[in-house]
């Protein structure tokens, strides 16, 4: 929590903090959690402004109302709608225009193909839209809107989503003091700071290599890194967007890569992890690990009491592949067969087993064919040991924290990994794209679970997936994983809330900004 010096014991108007974030929850979750912690840390002493796309406004309102319920003196969060397309909408427009094959959820087809040399290079080439999700006119509209909001709010400190190129461009161009907030690992920001051979032992995006990268694969890993650089520098769409921004705003296009190679001298990057949850590496001073940052949630029984009653019946496997992922029919059917194998085997090993499965299944919206998922699991669905739903009212963190989940199966997004770690739940990782492969490797590295599709990622087979799930649920390996998961959960608990730590660091940065402003005012 913020100290009294950093929070309430100050005179004058409330500090103004402006948060700039994309609306997708993969990135926005850390902002929701940190906003809640800021309001509770310094009620009445801080005024938070959040600028994002309209899709996020309802989430911001809930955070604001929740914080004010606990701290009546807290000021409501002011939401500013950024004009223009969201990054998701912009990326879809670009992929449609340049002909990148993609699914209905805007995921390029190359992201879902089994990893190989050709697949990795293709996927890397298809990743530029993640960092620059707009053409020239759309980028100018969003950057102009962000700059207008920055000037209008005149905040004491701006906190930026580290993946939001439009906001980074605006902040660099205006020359304002800002810091970054990210749910991702330290590795994503710190690898260029590693020395010697150590730098090349970290797997490159989409390689799927283990850490440390075996010596015989370092040349391939290096080639992928060079391919990343060439793809970025030669990308025609990126160059055209940069030129358009320069022509119409006289601004240089800035991306997350500038946080690695060209950061402001006083930049701080607050990351939602602990060093013990990450890869072993040297952490530069400007990167501040805060611990896992979750958005505020109530207990599962308050959001969905019927679900809580069902969870209380027995140990539960919780399957949630994230908000973006949509299952194709063959994937879901193989997963159902894997679950059936696991349940049958557990029943034999344990006798009268009460193991049950909660599966959040988002089906491919473009596939109207009949699926055999329910038929495969019919005996377990009829006995109410398996629930397959498209939507769950309770938040993932509430379900994981219920005390009834014994295994979390997920796509290895940052939030999924950290929520399971924080709750001490062993994991089965099914990495699907980009940095998901990093978090899957962390599951293996720290001994808190298994990679369920190591030989076929991002897809899976019945034999491999069912074998790895059983290893997490039963036997000596399962005991070791539960112990390791508990140790990491205990570490997180001992160090306190990551959101509260991030809030304290942000308030401290506000104090630094105030001191500098006072110094230059007096000097002038």
From TrEMBL:
Keyword Metal-binding: no
Keyword Transferase tagged: yes
One Pfam family matching this protein: UDPGT
SUPFAM superfamilies (alphabetical): UDP-Glycosyltransferase/glycogen phosphorylase (SSF53756)
Source species, domain of life: Eukaryota
Record keywords: Glycosyltransferase, Transferase
GO molecular function, one term: UDP-glycosyltransferase activity
Name of this chain's protein: Glycosyltransferase family 28 N-terminal domain-containing protein
Source organism of the structure: Hirsutella minnesotensis 3608
């Amino acid at each position: 929590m913020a100290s009294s010096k950093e929070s309430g014991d100050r005179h004058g108007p409330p500090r103004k903090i402006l948060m700039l974030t994309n609306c997708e929850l993969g990135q926005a979750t850390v902002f929701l959690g940190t906003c809640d912690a800021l309001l509770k840390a310094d009620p009445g002493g801080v005024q938070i402004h959040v600028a994002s796309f309209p899709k996020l406004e309802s989430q911001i309102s809930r955070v604001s109302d929740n914080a004010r319920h606990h701290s009546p003196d807290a000021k409501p969060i002011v939401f500013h709608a950024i004009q223009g397309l969201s990054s998701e909408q912009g990326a879809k427009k670009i992929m449609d225009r340049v002909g990148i094959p993609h699914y209905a959820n805007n995921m390029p087809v190359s992201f879902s193909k089994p990893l190989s040399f050709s697949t990795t290079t293709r996927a890397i080439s298809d990743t530029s839209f993640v960092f620059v999700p707009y053409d020239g006119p759309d980028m100018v509209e969003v950057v102009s809107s962000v700059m207008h909001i920055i000037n209008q709010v005149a905040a004491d400190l701006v906190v930026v989503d580290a993946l939001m190129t439009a906001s980074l461009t605006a902040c660099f161009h205006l020359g304002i003091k800002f810091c970054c907030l990210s749910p991702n690992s330290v590795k994503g920001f710190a690898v260029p700071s590693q020395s010697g051979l150590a730098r090349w032992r970290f797997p490159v995006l989409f390689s799927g290599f283990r850490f440390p990268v075996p010596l015989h694969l370092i040349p391939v890993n290096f080639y992928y890194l060079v391919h990343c650089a060439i793809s970025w520098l030669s990308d025609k769409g990126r160059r055209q967007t940069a030129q358009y921004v320069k022509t119409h705003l006289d601004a240089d296009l800035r991306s997350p890569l500038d946080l690695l190679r060209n950061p402001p001298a006083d930049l701080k990057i607050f990351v939602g992890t602990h060093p013990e949850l990450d890869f072993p590496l040297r952490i530069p001073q400007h990167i501040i690990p805060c611990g896992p940052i979750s958005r505020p949630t109530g207990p599962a029984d308050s959001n969905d009491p019927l679900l809580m009653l069902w969870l209380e019946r027995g140990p539960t496997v919780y399957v949630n592949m994230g908000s973006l992922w949509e299952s194709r029919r063959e994937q879901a059917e193989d997963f159902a067969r894997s679950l059936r194998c696991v349940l049958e085997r557990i029943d034999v090993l344990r006798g009268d087993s009460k193991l049950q499965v909660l599966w959040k299944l988002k089906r491919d919206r473009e596939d109207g064919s009949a699926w055999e998922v329910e038929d495969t699991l019919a005996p377990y669905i009829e006995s109410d040991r398996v629930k397959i739903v498209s939507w769950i009212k309770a938040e993932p963190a509430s379900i994981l924290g219920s005390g009834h989940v014994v295994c979390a199966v997920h796509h290895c997004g940052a939030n999924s990994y950290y929520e399971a770690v924080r709750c001490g739940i062993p994991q089965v990782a099914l990495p699907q794209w980009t940095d998901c492969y990093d978090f899957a490797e962390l599951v293996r590295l720290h001994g808190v679970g298994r990679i369920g599709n190591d030989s076929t990622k991002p897809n899976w087979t019945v034999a491999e997936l069912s074998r790895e799930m059983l290893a997490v649920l039963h036997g000596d390996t399962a005991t070791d994983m539960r112990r390791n998961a508990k140790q990491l959960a205990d570490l997180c608990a001992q160090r306190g809330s990551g959101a509260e730590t991030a809030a304290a660091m942000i308030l401290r940065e506000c104090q630094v900004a105030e001191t500098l402003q006072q110094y230059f005012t007096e000097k002038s």
